[in-house]
Amino acid sequence: xxxxxxxxxxxxxxxxxxxxxxxxxxxxxxxxxxxxxxxxxxxxxxxxxxxxxxxxxxxxxxxxxxxxxxxxxxxxxxxxxxxxxxxxxxxxxxxxxxxxxxxxxxxxxxxxxxxxx
Amino acid sequence: xxxxxxxxxxxxxxxxxxxxxxxxxxxxxxxxxxxxxxxxxxxxxxxxxxxxxxxxxxxxxxxxxxxxxxxxxxxxxxxxxxxxxxxxxxxxxxxxxxxxxxxxxxxxx
Lengths: 117, 109
What we know:
The complex is a heterodimer. Chain A is an all-beta fold. Chain A contains no helices and 11 strands. In chain A, strands 2, 4, 5, 6, 9, 10 and 11 form a 7-stranded mixed beta sheet that branches. Chain B is built from no helices and 9 strands. Chain B is globular, with a radius of gyration of 13 Å.
């Protein structure tokens, strides 16, 4: 069974750093891209970027380029999304998803990130 | 959003509801469309891929179509469990991103 299991909810202060994770199982982790999708409170879905776990090649949405970093450790089948300096506007639910061509066929359960002073 | 969806749609149990998704030649016009269902408090789930293909486990009541720069999702035999947000998505060749529609909230009256 394909599963993507994300790390738990986080509460951080503005300016702090954070890394959240997404562990894949039940399939060959290096055979599919992993994308990250943001959902701000009460809003729709926004694609942030993706990574090819086989070689860690990344592709970012211009809206998120430079503000987040996507990485992966194929030895433990885990992808990461990290921030070096959080803002209150980063408060959102973040989903990882397995990407088959241009479709996201499996999704993680989501990680809620709350940034508040 | 670059992909335009109606914010809401509704129907009574058993009815057919259709949701539209309007784009352009750089996205829907040249690429496939995927539809996602997001039930309240849950992660999104792929409902339709490659414009009109259903993953295993998705009921035949859900169907997708595409014509030119628009796509649509139809839900027939509407059930209370279909109350959710529905999003269309496609790759955009100009922006080099995956774009989502703004989402349509389906209410079963």
